[in-house]
Amino acid sequence: MSKKIKTVTFGLGGFDETKPNNNVIETIYYTDEELTELAEAEAKATAKAALLTQLGITEEQAKLLLS
């Protein structure tokens, strides 16, 4: 059974019941499968960043290499 995870983005100042829609800007629902994909993508990005750091490549240099 797939669960759904809800993420809510609020405007500046956070939750505010005096503002329309309680200052909610965006609500996203994720399934377990989507969360797994996001976690895998984040792990790959973290591993790549660690490798670039170990090689002494700066963020600017990496951007130039990938452009």
Description of the structure:
This protein is α+β, with helices and mostly antiparallel strands. It contains two helices and two strands. Strands 1-2 form a two-stranded antiparallel ribbon. The radius of gyration is 18 Å and the shape is elongated. The protein starts with a strand and ends with a helix. The model has no long low-confidence stretch (mean pLDDT 87).
User: Could you tell me the strand content as a percent range?
Assistant: 15-25%
Shape field: elongated
Q: Secondary-structure element order, as H and E? A: EEHH
- Which residue ranges are poorly predicted, with pLDDT under 50 across at least 5 consecutive positions? none
What is the number of helical segments per DSSP (H or I, 4+ residues)? 2
Average pLDDT value?
87
Q: Give the CA-CA distance, first to last residue.
A: 42 Å
- The strand count comes to 2
Rg, alpha carbons: 18 Å
The main pleated sheet reads as: 2 strands, antiparallel
Task: Tell me the helix content.
Answer: 40-55%
**Order of the strands making up the biggest sheet:** 1-2
| Computed structural class | alpha+beta
